[in-house]
Amino acid sequence: MDIKGFLSSEGRRKSFGDEYKSFKLLGGERRRQSVATWTTLRPFLPAAVPLLEELNDLHEEKSAADQQLAQDVSSTAVLTSRVGEEIEDLEITEIDRGNWSGRFDFLMSLLGYSVGLGNVWRFPYLAYSNGGGAFLFPFIIMFILLGFPLMFLELSFGQFAALGPAAIFDRICPLLNGIGHAMVCVSCMVAFYYTVIIGWAFLYMFKSFASELPWERCHKDWASERCYSHKDAADCTATNGSVYYLQNCFNKTEVERLNISSLAHNKSDRAPPAQDYFERDILGVTESIEDIGGLQWQIVLCLLLTWTLTFLSLSKGVKSVGKVVYFTALFPYVVLTILFFRGVTLDGAKDGIIYYLTPKFDKLIVAETWVKAAVQIFFALSPAWGGLITLSSYNKFHNNCFKDSLIVGVGNVCTSIYAGFVIFSIVGYLAKELETPIDTVVDEGPGLAFIVFPDVVTRLPIPPLWSFLFFFMLITLGMGSEFALLETVMTAVQDTYPPLRQKKVFVVLGVCVFGFLGGLVVCTEGGMYVLQLMDTYSASFAVFIMAILECLIIGWIYGADRFLRDIETMIGQRSKFWHYFFIFFWKFLTPATLIFLLLFNLVDYKRMSYKKKPYPVWAELLGWFMTFIPVLVIICMGIWRFYRSPKEKTFVMKLKKMLHDTPKWGPASKIPRSDSSLDIEGGKSRIVTNPGFTTTGNETRI
Q: 655-680 b/e with 16+ CB inside 10 Å = b?
């Protein structure tokens, strides 16, 4: 209706004439009612004119704002049909959460997160013990079945909504909103002990600043009877007839008198100084987890340094992290390459590499080989931990996350294989030096990083240099993964409580202090038992369950085909084969593989032990409690959300509503969202914000 035209005299005459014609057509009772109504309202018409003019001005301002909004939308995203139907009530929630400065910032962060300590100290051991070169076949197959589909799912999931795990599941499936919080719990538990390992690496790096490494010789204050130093032995045997035994040098006469020649050549009863130094001096390992002991203050100080560097790197947000990870993600490759060229030139390196690559095809018919390959690729790429969703949530909306998944996924696999060459060239050299079989030398986990390799560097020219390079590489590998773990936790806090975005520094400080205090228990003399317990249980069965639920939500509840169409709004249209590939994997193959892994690990469960010492029952129960903390979070939050949700006519209707996405779910671009609660009455301005993503910190007011 043209209000200004109506208010003009000509418009009024025309309107009143039309009214008069209608009035003549009325008859009887209706005519008398119309006369009474008109008589009542006519005195108020002059007073209504200013109000009508004000409403007309508001109408014009709203139309102009709507046009501007439509232009913004058309330039940044595709309007969905649902949005078009609900354009009358607008809500675009804008959260100033920041974003990566460039695409390579994200790629480096993702590479640093995915390529971690496990690529260097776990994969080579699994390869040699599960078929050598033949292990690469199930490893690559499991990358296709599990690693790549889950990685692409989470990267596109986080990028589409621009939300961390704690907020994103609440919008796509309210009943299972606890999945995101469960992921945060896993990241917290892993961060507690992961930073302690980085602290060990810092301590060893500092110990490398010496003319002679402290673990090159057996020192009385920490060496055991079995400690055997090849340097002391070389110095002793330089004198004809002398024998080095039990850390003492016996001359020819004493050897013949005590008859210790055969005992001195028994290599099975020897322990390298690096082993005693790590277990007895650095850790001070107690007899069992029941004797937790006191704090190792050297480790505590290095843990404090680790958390301080983490705070300084994360306090400025993802943009500062994006710059730091250029170094933490790329420097390990520099050191690996240096170690590779040094390793392959060592005597015995060829034997180690041949042992690493020689295929044992009989291992391929053993189910455990395939399970080990699946577990390794699953934990190498870290899906269902929340880190992938968190990192991708800071991407620009049209970033090609499909290409990123391929680059980082393939890069991770190649890094694992490359690290195997480095480790086995060095292990081959050590085996020849010790004149022992290779399979008695190789180790995994902390044993490889803090015992085998430190022992190797003592046999190389300029040992402190190689020691420094190796442990500095471990630090950069660990810090890259640690940044993503902590960013997952902090993003969850800020997505849950948006006002805290303005206090980023305090959030980072609080998380770092909490992490430092939580890691102190691992810094005790019995901390190695705690670390092994947390490493085994904190991110095992629960992660498989969360990955299965992710596939259930995206593949079946929300719909794989629907989600792929969402992805196409970000990266462009794809072929039918591309659609069929991911639909088949997300709905069938990937969840089926995950269920098999979960069941196999439950059936194949064995009680924990460390140094052949079994854990007590209460420690096992504590481990299982850590396993089920994320599961309990999912169940409890689902029940609470179901109880607090609006009442429906039936239980089934309420359940159905809780399993489907909410009106707030949608792409992270300037797309209108409906919200019936918005009002322009009472002098309130209307705020248009964006629920997932922003490039500015200002609100748009209509």
A: eeebbebeebbbbbbbbbbbbeeeee
Residues 6+ apart with CB under 8 A from 613: 287, 288
Known binding residue 112? Answer is yes
Confirm whether residue 477 is marked as ligand binding: yes
If we measure between CA atoms, which residue out of 475, 541, 610, 638 comes closest to residue 186?
Answer: 541
Statement: residue 86 has pLDDT above 50: no
Interatomic CA distance for residues 197 and 444, integer angstroms: 14
Query: According to the model, what pLDDT value does residue 278 have?
Result: 94
Is it the case that residue 501 has pLDDT exceeding 90?
no
Q: How far apart are CA 192 and CA 132, in angstroms?
A: 33
Q: In the Cβ-directed half-sphere of 145, how many Cα atoms lie within 13 Å?
A: 24
The Cα 574–Cα 127 span in angstroms is: 36
90 is in an annotated binding site: no
Using CA atoms of 557, 561, 564, 565 in order, give the dihedral in degrees to the nearest 10: -110
- Which residues make beta-bridge pairs with 248? 245
Based on C-alpha coordinates, what's the Rg of the chain?
33
Q: Is 481 known as a binding-site position?
A: yes
- pLDDT above 60 (res 636): yes
Q: Is 196 annotated as a binding residue?
A: no
The verdict on whether residue 115 carries a ligand-binding annotation is: yes
Mean pLDDT rounded to a whole number for the chain: 81
pTM to 2 decimal places: 0.79
